[in-house]
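Ticket #4471: complex job returned nothing on first submit. Input attached below:
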Amino acid sequence: MTLDEVFHFAKAKLPTAQQRELTGAPRTPSTCVNAQTGEDMSDITIYFAKKIITMNPARPEATHVAVRDGRILGAGSLKELEGWGTYTLDDRFAEKILMPGFVEGHAHAMEGTLWRKIYCGFFDRTDPSGRTWPGLKSIDAILERLRDAEAELTDPNTPLGGFQLDPIYMGNVTVNRQQLDSVSATRPIGVLHASGHIMNVNTKALELAGLLRPGINHPGIPLGDDGLPTGVLKGPEVYMPVGPHVGFNRSATDADEDGLRAFAKLCVHTGTTTVTDLASRLEPEAVEMMLRVTGEQDFPARVVPLKFFMGHTPEDLVQIAVDLRDRSTDKLRLGRIKVIADGSIQGFTARMKAPGYYNGAPNGLWYIAPEQMDQIYRLALQAGVPVHTHTNGDEATELVLDTLAPALLANPRPDHRFTLQHCQLADTAQFRRIKALGLCVNLFANHHFYWGDEHYRLTVGPERATRMNACRTALNHGVPLAIHSDAPVTPLGPLFTAWAAVNRITASGRIQGAHERIEVSEALYAITLGAAYTLHLDGEIGSIETGKSADFAVLDQDPTKVAAENLKDIPIWGTVIAGHIQAAADQ
Amino acid sequence: MSTPVTVIGGYLGAGKTTLINTLLRQADGHRLAVLVNEFGALSIDEDLILAQEGDVISIAGGCICCTFGDNLVGAFTDLLSLSPPPDHLIIEASGVAIPSSIAATLSLVQGVTLHGTVVLLDAETVQKRARDTYIGDTITRQIETADLLLATKADLVDDGHLDILRDWLGTLTARAALLPVRHGAVPNEVVLGLPARPDTLSVRALEDHGALYSSLTLYQTAPADPHALIRAFEDSHFGTLRAKGHFRNAAQQVMELQGTGVRLTLTPASRDPVALAIVFIGLKAELDKDGITKALSPLNFHPKT
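Support reply: We reran it on our side without changes. The output follows.
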C-alpha cells in the first residue's frame, strides 16, 4: 500500500459528522493507523464541536477546527479541513462550545500562593483544585471556618492565615483580636482583606511582632479602650512587620513554583490560556524556575510576567527587560515593564484631579517621580520595550499622557502599545488623548461590581462612579480595550469580567452607568483579541484561525446565546493549550 | 540595645546623594548602614566602595549600603541580624515618599529608635517645584511633616532669598528646624542625631564646624517629669537642631532623650550614663541658650557652675 493509498483509506473509513449522525456511529475518537506498522501516523487532529466561536471575521463560526503540532490549520466544516491531509477526528467536544483561549491581561500569580490560606471572602470562589468555597456572610461564619482549619493543624505554633476578608459587605463591621483569639489564643492568626490593604491579627500575632504594648501612636493602628492595638492593621507597611509571624512572607506578591502551578490550574478552571503576572520581581532564580515550569509540555498556561519597576534605575530596568526579552519561550513571554504611578481609589491613595475625593480625603500618593517615569518611557521607547502603567486616579492618567506625549515625539515608536492598567477614572477628554497617543487601556471591569457602590457613596461620588471604567467610551473612541480581574484582588475569570463590563451591575444589584455598558460580542473580543493586542500577541493567540496557537476555552454553553446577565454562570469544561487538552476536572 | 535610625527624604535633585556621601566620609568609625530604594539613584562615590555583592555595597570604615526595593521592613530585619550590627541606620526615602510615613512605620519595628526625619530641599528651586501641578503637594507634605529641614545649595542664593524661603517654610511648618547647608558641609551629629553612646558629651560638630555651631549643656540636679520636659519644647525648639542626653524621672529611672527640632523622643536608658545632662546644639546665630536655660530651670536642669 502506498502512502497515498493509506491516506485515501483513512479518509474513506472516517465518517463525517453528518454521516455519523445518520449512521449512529460511536462518538469515540477515531484514529488513523498505519496498516503495516500499526503506529498512529496522523499528526492532524480535527476537533468537532457544537459550535466554535472563532473571533475571526472571515469565518466567525465553525463546527470543526484542525490542529497540527499545537497550531491551528483552520476552522470550518470538516469538508473544508479535510484538504489538510490525513487526520484524526476527535469529537470529545461535540457538545461543547469552543472559543479562543481567554487572555487575562492583568492578574498576579500571587493568586496561586494565596490559596494556601483559608478563604474568608463574601462571594463564592473556586480554588485551584476546583473546589468552590461558599462565600461567608458573617464574621461568625468566618470564625467558624477558621476554627475548622485550626482544628486540622497539629503543630501548635504553625500560623493560621486567611485571605479575602471584606467587611464592606457586612456593614463595615470591624474584626478585633479578641474575636480571632476565640479561634486560637496560642497560635498566631492573620487575615488579609480583599483590598490587600488591611490585615486583622490576633493577640498572639501582635505579641510576637512586639506590638502588644501601650503607647503605640500610628494612624494605621487603632487602639482599644485598654490602650492596646485592636488587631486591625491598616496599610501594607503596617502589617508587613507582622506578616512573617502569621505566614505571610515578605515577597508574597511573587509566586513560588507551587504557587505558579496553582495559578495555572485556576487558568484551566476559568478558560484562560494566557495570563499576565503583572508585577513580577523576576529575580534570576525566579526566571529560571518559571522557564523550567512553563517549559513542561503539559503546563496549562502561557505566562506573561511584567518586570516590576521598583528598586532599579530606569537604565537598569530597561536593560533587564531587554535581556529578559531574549529569554522568552513559547509559554513564557518576557521583556515588558510594569510601572505604578499612584495608589488605589478605595485606599484614598489614588491621585485625583480637582475636585478630588468625594468625602474630602486628601489627595493620594505618587509611587514614581514624574522625572523617573519620563526616563523609563524614553529608554523603553528606544529599546522597544512595552511599558504598562498602573493609574487609578485621573491625575495619574493625566501624568502618563503628559509624560508620554513628549517622550514619543523624541523617540517615535510606531505600534508601541503602551498600556494604561486600571485607568479607572479616565474621562472622555483623556480617552481622546489616549487614542491620539496610541495607548491601549485595560479597564478594571470587575472592580465596578465589587466596589462600585463604595465609590458611589464614599470615594468619588455618584457622577464619577457612574462613568468609571468607561468601556463604551474607550471603544467609541477607537481605543484598544482589554478588561481584567487583577486577581487575586478579584477572582480570575474572564467570563465574569466580560459579564461585569456588559451589565455594570454593582454588588448591591444596581446598574451603575448603563451608558458605559458594552455588547457581549465586544466583551468577548476584549477578553481574547483585545487583551492579546495589549501584549503584542494578537498575531499568535486570541482567535481561532489559521496559523495561530491551538489555545481554546471549552465551554458548556454558548456565551452569545445565553442571556447577558448569565454570562458569568457558564460552566467551563477546561482548555486546550497548544493542542494539549486540559480538563478542569483533572486539575 | 536599640539601633538609631534616621530617615532622609526630599525630592529629586535636593542633594540626598551628596549628603549621604558626606555622611559616609565623616563616619569616623561609626558603622553606618544606608538603605536606598535603588542603586544608581544613589551613587556612592567610587573611592568609598570596597566591594559590591548583589544588593549590598561594602564601604570603607565598615559602612554598608543596600537596596530595599519595595520591602523596607525585610531589609531592616536582615541588617539588624548582621554581626556586628550597624551603629546607625540611614534610610534614603524615594523622591516621592513622605519621610514621616516611613518614620511612623519604623516606630513599629522592634530594635530601632527613630532619630528624626530629615528632609532636604533645594534652596534655589523648592518654591517653584512646590507649585508643580503633579508633585507640588508631595513636596509640601514632605516639608510639613519633617523634623529637620536642610536647605541645600544655600551658597547659591543670597541672604534675601534665604529670608523669603524661611518665611515661606514658616507658613508650612512651625515644628521643623531649618538648617541652610552651604557647599554640602554639615556635621553627622546634626543630620543623624548625636551618638547614642552614653559615655561622651563631646560634640565633634563644634570642633569641625566651630564657626557655625554652638552648644549648650544642662545638668540635672534633681529628678524631673519627662512630660514637662516635652511640653517645654512643644511651641519652640529654641533654635535647637539636635538634643541628646540622659535624665532621671520621678520614679528614679534613667531616661534617654533624643531631640530633632521640636521632636523629643524618650526611651528608658539602656546603660548608665556618665552624667545626667542634656546637650543642645544649633547654629551659633540661632541657638537660644537663655531661652532653653530658662525653660528647663524649673525642671531641675542648670548650666554647670
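The longest strand of chain B covers residues 112-122. Closing as resolved unless it happens again.
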